[in-house]
Amino acid sequence: DAVRYLSEWTGMAPEAVPHPARQPAATWTPVLPVPADAPPLVAPNGTARVYNPKRADSDKAWTTLRPEMVHVYRNIDGVPLGYVLRCTFRDGGKFTPQVTWCGNAAGEYRWCLIPFPEPRPLYGLDRLKGRKPGNVVIVEGEKCADVARPFLDFPVLSWPGGANGVGHVDWTPLAGWKPLI
Predict the structure, then answer these.
(1) Whole-prediction pTM value?
(2) Beta-bridge partners for 68
(3) Average pLDDT of adjacent 10-residue blocks, the chain of 181 residues
(4) CA distance linking residue 178 with residue 82, whole number of Å
(5) Which of 45, 69, 136, 147 has its Cβ near the most Cβ atoms within 10 Å?
(6) DSSP readout, 133-156?
(7) b/e sequence 93-102, b meaning 16+ C-beta within 10 Å
């Protein structure tokens, strides 16, 4: 409508501008657990450089984040599976992406803004190892889990993705445990 209005207003006929065909982005697949030889996600200067496959065809495919919190998701044995970063913006908004170590068919590997595959792991799962099933506290958000842990005598767990992510989680490791919500 805007083009039509402007062409009538200016008396100029609009020209169709051909766009190059969009190339499909390579498929990136999370590799869990993270291999021991993967480079650290967060550099010593506190930044994390991650790849966004959704922007593979633009100059914005790589993003540098400065997370204020880094939450490591681990399997029951304590081996890292990936991360959830917490980045707060000046306007008060927040960005909490899931970042996983991914590979593609070409044999390339990198940290990507790709969520954990479903069913997704629990945050704090490694805190169950060596404990007999009993009470376990389930909270929404990694930040809440980290804050509550020092005050409780039993494990505190969370899941990635907030309220919308609860249905995508692998709850089977909690079989035999008594969840306190």
Answers:
(1) 0.84
(2) none
(3) 63 60 68 98 97 93 96 98 95 95 97 97 97 96 96 96 95 96 77
(4) 26
(5) 136
(6) S-EEEE-SSHHHHHHHGGG-SS-E
(7) eeebbbbbbb
> Which is it for strands 109-112 and 98-103: parallel, antiparallel or unpaired?
antiparallel
Query: Which residue in the block uniquely carries the two structure tokens 């190059």?
Result: 20
Q: Residue 91 has which token pair? A: 């306007």
d(CA 31, CA 114): 11
CA atoms within 13 A on the CB side of 118: 6
What tokens does 164 get?
Answer: 């919308």
| Chain position carrying tokens 């767990």 | 157
Q: Measure Cα distances from 107 to 29, 62, 100, 113 in Å.
A: 11, 18, 16, 18
